Predict the structure of Cob(I)yrinic acid a,c-diamide adenosyltransferase.
Amino acid sequence: MPQGQPTTVPDDGLSTRQRRNRPLVMVHTGPGKGKSTAAFGLAMRAWNQGWDIGVFQFVKSAKWRIGEQTVMERLGQLHAETGEGGPVEWHKMGSGWSWSRKEGTEADHAADAAEGWAEIKRRLATERHDLYLLDEFTYPMKWGWVDVDDVVATLAARPGRQHVVITGRDADPRLLEVADLVTEMTKVKHPMDAGQKGQRGIEW
């Protein structure tokens, strides 16, 4: 795509503007580092455009606060205080979701994943957000906790102009088929190969 120009112009009856502004399903997959990092960079761009952003983390522990969460929540607070950027919601699966914490009980992760997907379906139906970031969502699909065919059908039929970005390894081929943009992160070298653990500011 030299200078950002598409390689082909389809005969679909749409204007350049209409084609440019179609909502996208984006998938960041592969064994390499950077899938979530790239998705959160995209979310920051979307915030700057005033988009409403919903983040749903499907695997990371509710007790583990990553750096991007602090930044995105601060941006959401800035929007609430000044009107700059867009609103941000951040929901994390762990001992239940942010909206339904289960105090003192061990979460059933499969049920929690299904509950999270059901909530996302409801939000898609009502066009709640402009951008949905479903972090590590490939894993519940891989493990059979969420039905892949249901995800694919829902994403394909979503109304309005709602963008969705999904991260995680081993994305199902059916998800890749419905996606508009697929990036595979491939590891060439990693500090862990030389025995170096993750470090502050790089991994979190």
Q: What stands out?
A: The first strand starts at residue 25 and ends at 29. The radius of gyration is 18 Å.
